[in-house]
Design goal:
Order of helices and strands of chain A: EEEHEEHEHEEEEHEHEEHEEH
Number of domains of chain A: 1
Oligomer: homotetramer
Strand order of the largest sheet of chain A: 4-3-12-11-10-9
Structural class of chain A: alpha+beta
Distance between the termini of chain A: 19 Å
CATH topology of chain A: L-amino peptidase D-ALA esterase/amidase
Strand content of chain A: 15-25%
Number of strands of chain A: 15
Largest interface: A-B, 50 and 50 residues
């Protein structure tokens, strides 16, 4: 079950109807999981901010690296220009190049882009090297293009799927998770959705309960630094609120507060990145608006705090969904067990 | 009682003997609380990295602004040069200038500094305008100099004292808090201490228990954005580990994970800053080392993660100490109640 | 004479009518020079972005530290919120606190600000310790308030005046300088003005001619690092173009290209900061706009490059004006000669 | 001829014996130019910081994006960890992915890297779309691997070669250029070398002489913003000085002062990046040093300024070399003429 179906409530705000990033109208998600074996547990997840020509009608965006032991591609241009112009792809650490090539090729091939000669591909990654023979670099450009082409609205598959096929968090199988929040009308009524690729460690904490300690499985337990460079979390945040790129960056930064609440220790080897974009038409950088002085809407600084709270909550819940929905996966260097909900749910119940 | 005395345990690492920033050898703290009235609830807290000439023998330092609705003074030079050369002062928002002047005057007056013509004063602040007539700008240069001069090792006063005399967190009286962690020998054996000036909001969470919700007192409860620009938290972190300024910045960044776990929503109006420094002689920027190529020690990236965990835990516990030790204060625009431990402790007990 | 009056042309764009920051409508400048002696050569320069209530009607702003061996106050909030809400003050290194206190007091005292309890004072500085007994900390809060109160539109005094009373550049007396550019209509027709407080070193280059070498006066000439921590340049840029805070940051960054062309070596001891703001009504953060979603204008990324060129040119010319207009000043540790135009102008003529 | 051979002197410091990045001992450069046609004018340039196992023995590094309309790969990890662990590759904008894949594959294949599962590929690019059918994405992984494998010490080919095969600067054919400076013993005796991939615009200025204006070829001449997103410059800086990653970042930042002096307007569409690394054994992050607290050397802040000056000068001269050495190239959308030295050299002579 997803966390909320299992009775876990995170925060004080309500989720949207799907409790997914696709609650933000227009956002679509596509995932390709490579045929699974002990050697291959990897894939690609694609998030498209809207269904039009992403390059011609760019979306404002903000980016934050909390701990940047990672290979996120495309970040400097996002920050400089405050915008995203391609699908956002997630994959494994050693296939960033293939995903990047796919984003470029796909963009060049879109109708209307015949004269495009510069494309800022955006690719995040985490390291699935425990379960996946990552040195094999299995993901192809074609795989990544299929992920883009398969993007749909509606519910999003979670757990050991797409770019989460082989990822592990807190010693358990994790992967892709998503969640959303819909603000009450008095706070603006905006929708904000989050998708995570969870692959990090620390002391697993669910709704405040230190489950990792109670299960006897957490970092530093052996008083040995045994974490390696294979942790990471990439967080993608969508909202329909008309935010400037500066305020989108601030939204992105709050995602790490949600990660913190799950018990992350943000270790040296973790690549922790967040990218937030707005789907609001009133801030979209259309061909027309990019020609000359144009009018845009702006939610002022003083009204943004509820979106920060929504980001924190949805990020925390997205991680829990990644863990709750993942199944046990056997890989080439070990096995990642699913979170033992039979033990965990009673712990959570006892604490309430 | 402090949180730990009341039975609250945070994290998996052990505190130092004082469970205070002063567990880091050489660090001293001085605090001046202005004579209290309904109109005046403010003061100054000073942290000195070592007992020598701070300007001549600078300490490497790292700085992070998580949400920078605040008036932190001295940050750009800290980042550029990677060092602190004065006492670190905390006070209220509208007296940053006076504290800064005090740091300058004190530095100019130290023996050996007769030729000094440039001083980078470091001042953090939060807004105590609920309890304090902050527009009165009560803190004088002399007050701030007394805080520096009174700095001592040993236990640190917590709660409504010094720069925390008038601050409020999660709707309760808060103020200054401190805590520390001593790593086991296998993880390096380093000590890391934290001091916070806590003055922010969100949904109070103690050791994972959503106490704020259970008490019915938390932000957004009225579905109204009623938070104003008076939240903030400033976090000072000391360690005896031989860290580069880059890794000190990374340590500073982890403090916000501890803040996140207390339930902060990092709202727009919050000024959330962290400053970390190393007291290790092997990295100190002495007059000799600043003359020519010199040898320094360096704890490598791969060994730093336990210090990140220590920072997260000590920061969370320092905030709890600020809340647990503060007493009710009546001020000019309202009263900030002490945290009702009679209600809170049973909540915590029930959750365990 | 100013540089242009002496026949020096910088760049390819035309200046505004005053060739000053005050060509940007609404911008005013006030300067206080302390009564001069061998011991006292210092002062304050104030720039006001508009004539209304700056705190209630904030201006979007961008900030860049190129080399941050300096004490610029207020930068973190400018970056986080993308705005300036007070006068911008310049003074000497050890009087930043007094200027900051003045900005706070002045803001609290403005009609309409009776409930203000948080003010982000913005103060830049350079070190005039060669000509001024800087340890005397001569500038008072009252001096700085007078600078604000005396702000006027129209021509701006240059050279050894205000915050430039005691500053030195390239070994010659420098100080305050200003210049502007007015874009042709086809490039937007915007006006952009710059004011500098010049106090730095390198190899003086005027319109490309290495005058410093020809005069035999430049850094590293003795192959000795004899530069100390007293160089710096602070650059304030105003424009009437409707820019986002992100694009104002980009404008600010270009100022250093202008500084580079004057021969700066951006040495370790230099505090090199730039702050850019927009006076456009269409982006002003008025009380109304700060209440809820509001409409603002935005000059898109693709149309901004001419403003970058304007910034580079106006900054270079402003520095030249600071040098050309300064007179010789005798101070307590030495004398700073005026640039010997009798020798320099022929060098420039020969090169053309 | 190279600029210096043609009588152009830049700055006040002396070059090294080769006046190239390879003056820094251990640094090698490899270049692959694809077989040339009207449709194909592109290639790859590889810089290797040392001849050992780059992944096991990493070099400290600093990175700066001045204007980040570009696709630089690998920057976030460089900044977080302060190091480079692969060859540094330059290519065209739409082949970053292929160069990145090559850096990954080459690293995985090195002896001693059999267990490596995370590689931070570093790739810079500029847009050669005027002369090259960039949408054809001609560069293959094999091409990029050949560039790495062909890296050698000694003189470096300049102009229309490698990653500079198709680039254009100031309207003239440019490409790869290099230069160096050797500090006098009194300033430390260090060597610093620069390599640029020059592809940007503005008003060409050679040794201070506004050659672009005199030739009647410069940006904004038509008072039309006709610059597109195809400008850029990537700058790689090597030094044998024992610098921290923080001070390497500061070195990198100075490169843009050199670019400024060539007349760059740092337009919106430019991707201007600099990466600096140290080859000093005393700061190399060897397998041993990465295990536990280790001793490293550090050139202090107070001694670094001459390296800043060296960076500025070598960068300016490297750009001139790129222009002076490039030959006319006919491409698919136009022709880029070589700089007409027959006209330019007399202009320079006249100005001296």
């Amino acid at each position: 079950p997803r966390a909320r179906e299992a009775g876990v409530t995170v925060g004080i705000l309500e989720p949207g109807p799907l409790n997914a990033i696709t609650d933000v109208a227009g956002v679509t998600v596509g995932q390709v999981t490579l045929p699974r074996s002990r050697a291959v547990n990897t894939g690609v997840t694609a998030i498209l901010p809207h269904g039009g020509n992403l390059f011609q009608d760019k979306v404002p965006a903000g980016f934050v690296a909390y701990n940047a032991f990672g290979k996120f591609m495309g970040s400097t241009q996002i920050v400089e220009l405050g915008e995203v112009e391609t699908p956002i792809l997630l994959t494994n650490t050693l296939n960033v190049a293939e995903a990047g090539a796919a984003a470029v090729e796909w963009t060049l091939a879109q109708p209307g882009n015949e004269d495009v000669r510069s494309v800022n591909a955006v690719v995040g990654e985490t390291n699935d090297g425990l379960l996946n023979v990552i040195r094999g670099r299995h993901v192809t450009i074609a795989d990544a293009r299929r992920a883009i082409d398969s993007a749909r609205s509606g519910p999003v598959a979670e757990g050991a799927v797409g770019a989460g096929a082989g990822t592990v968090a807190f010693g358990f199988k994790a992967g892709i998770g998503t969640a959303s929040r819909k603000l009450p009308a008095a706070l603006g009524g905006w929708t904000l959705g989050v998708l995570v690729q969870a692959n990090y460690g620390g002391v697993l904490t669910i709704a405040g309960v230190p489950v990792g300690v109670q299960l006897g499985r957490y970092d530093y337990r052996q008083q040995v630094e045994d974490r390696k460079a294979d942790g990471s979390v990439v967080i993608v945040i969508a909202t329909d609120a008309p935010l400037s790129d500066r305020n989108l960056r601030r939204v992105a930064e709050r995602a790490f507060a949600g990660i913190a609440r799950t018990g992350s220790s943000f270790s040296n080897g973790s690549g922790d990145y967040a990218l937030a974009f707005s789907t609001a038409q009133a801030v979209r950088r259309t061909t027309d608006r990019r020609k000359d002085v144009a009018s845009v809407q702006d939610l002022p600084n003083d009204r943004i705090s509820p979106l920060f709270q929504a980001t924190i909550e949805a990020t925390e819940e997205a991680v829990l969904n990644a863990l709750f929905k993942a199944h046990t996966v056997e890989g080439h260097r070990g096995t990642a067990d699913a979170l033992p909900l039979d033990k965990v749910l009673p712990m959570l119940k006892k604490a309430r």
